[in-house]
Write a structure and sequence with these properties.
The chain has 130 residues and is of the alpha+beta class. The chain is built from one helix and seven strands, in the order H-E-E-E-E-E-E-E.
């Protein structure tokens, strides 16, 4: 019986030491590894549109720039392309239905692309940043 009690005490002390060390190790790793919530990057951003097999496609790019503040740059965490498409509906009384589509959020250095559905025309495009 003493042997079981002695083992139970040793195991609980080991668990306590492990549980106490986990926050310390996790905090150290978070400081060493770059996180998703890092500071904004100075970037030069632009957006362009083109036709890809007959459908309109908008592409947003932000190029990170290192060094002192450069004219025409801004602090960017994420960016995405936004496209506005027009669909013509109706037989006798034709009318346009406008649809706004958003591309996926991307980090500076990556491109975000979104395209209009088939049988739609390009009504406008822009870029969202945060």
């Amino acid at each position: 019986m003493n042997l079981l009690a002695k083992r139970a005490g040793t195991t609980s002390r080991r668990r306590l030491a492990t549980v106490a060390a986990v926050p310390l190790v996790a905090g150290t790793l978070m400081m060493m590894l770059p996180g998703q919530a890092s500071a904004a990057t100075q970037s030069k951003c632009n957006v362009s549109a083109k036709l890809n097999w007959g459908t309109a496609e908008a592409t947003s790019t932000c190029t990170p720039i290192a060094g002192p503040m450069v004219q025409g740059t801004k602090q960017v965490n994420n960016h995405r392309a936004v496209i506005k498409c027009a669909n013509i509906r109706g037989q006798g009384n034709q009318h346009d239905i406008y649809v706004t589509l958003h591309g996926p959020w991307k980090r500076p250095g990556e491109a975000s692309t979104v395209s209009c559905p088939m049988r739609s025309s390009l009504a406008g495009y822009s870029q969202d940043t945060n």
